[in-house]
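ok so for the tutorial part 2 we go from a plain amino acid sequence to predicted structure tokens. step 1 is just haveing the sequence, like this:
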Amino acid sequence: MKGQYRVIMEVLLFGIGVAITSFILVNFANLQKNTAIVSTEDQMETVLNSITNGIVKASQMPNSIIRIEIPKSVSGKTYKLFIQNKNNIVAVDLEDTSISVSRKLFNLNESLLIKGEVVSSAGIVEIKNDGSTIIMQRG
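step 2 — the prediction. this is what the tokens look like for a chain of 139 residues:
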């Protein structure tokens, strides 16, 4: 009978060890995923800051073209920039569309129409103001 208790104790100890290891691995994977999402969103914010500044500058200079170099990927992922509802600029991850960042455009002439979209693989965004329309396009 003593031998059976020892075997049962060893099996239970092994099971507890496997459970603890599994718990640590699952939590580490979740932490890594969340950190990657935060890093991607932060890098997208930086890109949006540059593009927003370019749009504001272009709006102040009719018949101008501004070229901005952007990273071809953030956190190893390709992303798309586009204008939404005339006054929001959005960056969205092409692989996981749940990862996106938007920025409101302000201090712009209300009569200007703002439109366009660019995929980050272009590497350069061209912001063109023809006097009545600001177009964001591939550079």
